[in-house]
């Protein structure tokens, strides 16, 4: 808001409550078994801290925005297999907990986690839920 002209818009996106599920819960349960420290039990991953539209509206309202709007965008697609899910884990915020594991534990975690994720795969692939909220507010200085 500080660097946006009066009348300009600030926009951002945030993942919804169902994003990354059920794979994310499987990941969290298993990584904790390997001793990874994830401080927040209710919202263990950073992207889970703004998962509902009311929180996004409140954030923009508190910043003094007007004409606040939040829209849900249903994003979902099929991953070919559990290895495609691993690519998401390795190249996203899931990597932080993975970095806490020594190489042997990492390999064991990967094998066990991908086995349970692969069990979710249907005939056409593994569903990935990327539900997202897009929020915007107008700056009035």
Spell the H/E element sequence: EHHEEHHHEE
DSSP strand count: 5
Unreliable stretches covering 5 or more consecutive residues: none
User: Judging from the principal axes of the Cα atoms, what is the shape?
Assistant: elongated
Describe this structure in words.
The chain is built from five helices and five strands; from the N terminus they run E-H-H-E-E-H-H-H-E-E. It has helices spanning 23-33, 53-62, 82-90, 95-98, 103-118; strands at 9-15, 66-73, 76-79, 126-129, 132-138. The strands form two sheets. Strands 1-5-2 form a three-stranded antiparallel β-sheet, covered by helices on one side. The longest helix has 16 residues, at 103-118. It is elongated and about 55 Å long. The mean pLDDT is 92.
Which features does this protein show?
single chain; 141 residues; alpha+beta; three-stranded antiparallel beta sheet; two-stranded antiparallel ribbon
